[in-house]
Each structure stands twice: as C-alpha cells, then as structure tokens.
Design a protein that fits this description.
Blueprint: H1 25-37, H2 47-60, E1 64-68, H3 71-81, E2 89-92, H4 99-106, E3 110-113, H5 125-131, E4 136-139, H6 151-161, E5 164-168, E6 176-177, E7 180-181, E8 188-192, E9 205-209, H7 212-222, H8 246-277, E10 283-285, E11 299-304, H9 314-323, E12 328-329, H10 340-343, H11 364-373, E13 374-378, H12 386-404
Parallel strand pairs: 2-3, 2-4, 4-5, 5-8
Antiparallel strand pairs: 1-9, 6-7, 8-9, 10-11, 11-13, 12-13
The structure holds pyridoxal-5'-phosphate (PLP).
C-alpha cells in the first residue's frame, strides 16, 4: 500500500535531529578561559593560534599551516603568493562555491572553467590539459564534497607545464588520497572553518604548505605586509590584517580532537549509504574507489534520474525528501559561469581582458549536475547511526513508490 508522503501531511520517515556544530563543556570552558585571560589576540599574544597551526600541520602532514579569517582569504593569499601576474589564467571547476573563482578575479587573473567528471563531480584532468595556454599559471582543484580529485593526474600535468596547484580543501578536512591528507599534495592547501564546514569555529580558514618561501609570503600578506624580523610599522608587501583571534584558535584546537573520529564515521556511513542507494532504480551515488582512502563527506551527493520517478523534477524531489526528515538540498542551481557576476562581468576595479566572454562557456556535466541530477545530504547527518542511513534509503523508496503509483 502506498504511504502518504510527509510533504502531503503523512508521517516523516526520519525523526532524528542531526546537530551541528558538535560541542560540549570542554569547548565552552576552553573559550571562557581565554576570555578571562584577556589575551585575545595579536600583537601581545598569538600562542594559542600558533599552537593550533602546529596541530593542524601535524594532522595534515605538512611543514606549515597558517590560519586566516576564512577559506576565501586562504585561497586568495595562496594564489597571490604563487606569484601570478595580471592577465594570467587559472584553471577552476564550475561546480564549486563562488570563492574558488572570485579570488582569481580579485588577483586580476582570468578564471578558466574546466568541466567536472560525471562520476565524481571533480575537475576532469583531461579537460585541464586541453585548457592550458601560455598564460596558464595555476590549477585550483576542489576536492568536492570531500572526495579527492585525481591528484596523480593533476600533479603530473602541473609538473609537465610548470603550474602551481592550490588544493581547495574547504570540504576535505582530514580526508585522504592514497593515504596522503588532502591539502598536503599540491603546492598549497586551503581550508575553511565557516560554520557549515567539517571543522569550524564559526568563521576562519587555514593554509597548508611544505614550501617555506610560500609560507613566508602568505604570512606577510596575512599580517599587513610585515616580514620576519621587521619593525611593527614596516610593510613590505600588499597584505591586510587577516588574522584570527585566540578564542577561535582554542575552539579549533578542541574541535580538532574530534575530527579524526568524525571523519571516519562520515566515511563509514557514506560508504554504507552508497551500498543502499545503488540498489534503488534511478539513484546513483557518486563513484568511489578512485584513490580516496578517506572521504570526509562534507556533502553526501547522489545522482537523481527523474525518468525513474515519473518525471518528477529534482527540485520537487528534494523538497519531498527534506519533508521526510532527510536534511537535503538541490545544491547549486547553476554552474558558476552562469552567475550574473560572470555573465555581466561585474568585476569592479579588477582588470580582466575585454575579450573574455563567459556567455560562451559550456560545461555540460556541471550543467546536468545542477539542473537535473545532484541531490545533497548535509554532512552532520553522516555523523548519525547506521540505522539513520537505512531510513534515508527508506525515505527515497517511499517517494518513488508514491510518485509511480
Ligand atoms: C566554504 C568554501 C570556500 C570559502 O570558505 P569561506 O570560509 O566561506 O570563505 C571555498 N571553497 C569551497 C569549496 C567552499 O566550500
């Protein structure tokens, strides 16, 4: 018998309340202690910031880690420190958060969009190689949803053409590719601590690298152009104040203790949910087994085929699934090059060559993902129990039965 869908007043399939952020009294006390100490930030004290940077670098397996105000600024400082010049081209995917590409414009460089792979939604290395010109200086692969990009292929291309690789690891704290932490493979790795991310202090970011020169430059840019050994009012580079506070750092240190266990839990639940959803006609989880030894599932993504759901559009399906109690969302409504920012070239004071025309860009895989296919389930649900995953699959089956009958 067909059940009444929750969207039509029936019972919800999932009744769990998935919390985020996760915290307890140890977080509260750690922050309270800093508040009481009166040592909140630069210039008198940055010991807790330095401590967290050391801990994050250790977790990530890099020599250096440098905090900053957010993930966008992390990417911005990384790109500028890589030595790009106005008019240089930077290869980016179209299926990502706007910051991956807007920071390229802010560096007076040209974002060049390369389509994603249909089975992972990560940037396609074959497309990268085709897009390289004399002006190409860097690639920003995004480990989308926490699934590693094909880093062997991307690093090989970067060596062949002498390009910098900036990993956008804003979805990938603690995730791995062939046993290496994401953010430790390219020249620089960038992470966000914004409130939705897998490690958070409300806002914040961090940059990882093994390259001392890049580290020194990014440190200077973060710190108003000051340099090691220089005077307080001595400014060498065009930077700004992008530092975080001691309250953020101490919270991050405490949160970091949970990251390993949480990442493993998301990985396990995501893997289990794949095994359930791949049995449903018209639902395809993204591909696995492509080197991602640990998937951080910042987003759990599956592909939806409306032809198996009586042609119910994805947007309607996502709403029905959310009503069933599965925290989910249709994802990006369009690839980035379709945003007014790019179509209208509202680039403010930044100097992009006039011949650049984003209305001509077409990345069919990203378009299909946005318009038809991709459904996102939020990361905190992946911290749930195995039974919750069973319920998610049940909710999808319930919708399918209802729309087909
Ligand atoms: C969140 C995010 C960013 C930017 O991070 P903020 O801290 O919000 O500035 C960049 N890239 C991706 C893929 C993100 O998800």
């Amino acid at each position: 018998m067909k059940e009444i869908l929750a969207i039509n007043g029936g019972e919800k399939t999932v009744n769990e309340n998935f919390v985020w952020p996760v915290y307890d009294e140890t977080d509260v006390n750690a922050v309270a202690e800093v508040v009481r100490s009166g040592k909140w930030g630069n210039p008198d004290c940055e010991d807790l910031v330095a401590k967290f940077e050391k801990e994050f670098a250790e977790m990530c397996g890099t020599k250096y880690a440098l905090t900053c105000v957010n993930g966008s600024v992390a990417l911005r400082l990384a790109l500028i420190a890589c030595g790009v010049k106005p008019g240089d081209e930077v290869i980016v995917p179209p299926y990502t958060f706007i910051a991956t590409t807007s920071i390229v414009l802010e560096a007076n460089c040209v974002p060049v969009f390369v389509d994603i792979e249909p089975d992972t939604y990560n940037i396609n290395p074959v497309g990268i190689e085709k897009a390289i010109t004399e002006k190409t200086k860097a690639i920003i692969p995004v480990h989308f949803a926490g699934q590693s990009c094909n880093m062997d292929a991307i690093m090989a291309i970067s060596k062949k053409y002498n390009l910098k690789v900036i990993e956008d690891a804003c979805h990938a704290h603690g995730a791995e590719y062939k046993g290496m932490k994401l953010g430790s493979i390219g020249d620089v790795g960038c992470f966000s601590f914004q409130s939705s991310k897998n490690l958070t202090s409300g806002e914040g970011g961090i940059i990882t690298t093994n390259d001392e020169k890049l580290y020194d430059m990014m440190n200077s840019l973060r710190n108003v152009g000051r340099v090691k050994g220089g005077q307080w009012y001595e400014h060498h580079n065009l930077g700004c104040n992008y530092r975080i506070t001691q309250m953020q750092a101490v919270l991050l240190s405490n949160q970091l203790k949970r990251l390993g266990e949480q990442t493993q839990r998301r990985h396990n639940n995501g893997t289990y949910l794949n095994s359930l959803l791949e049995k449903i006609d018209g639902i395809t989880p993204l591909a696995r087994g492509l080197g991602e030894t640990l998937h951080s599932y910042h987003i759990y993504i599956f592909k939806y085929d409306k032809s198996k759901f009586n042609n119910l559009p994805k947007v309607e399906f996502s709403k029905m699934l959310a009503a069933e109690g599965v925290p989910c969302f249709m994802g990006y409504p369009q690839p980035l090059y379709k945003q007014p920012l790019f179509l209208e070239k509202n680039f403010m004071c930044y100097a992009i060559p006039s011949e650049v025309d984003y209305s001509k860009v077409c990345c069919p895989v990203a378009e299909k993902a946005c318009y038809e296919e991709a459904v996102w389930i939020f990361q905190n649900t992946m911290l749930g129990e195995k039974e919750d995953m069973d319920k998610f699959a049940e909710a999808i089956t319930k919708i399918q039965k209802a729309v087909l009958s």
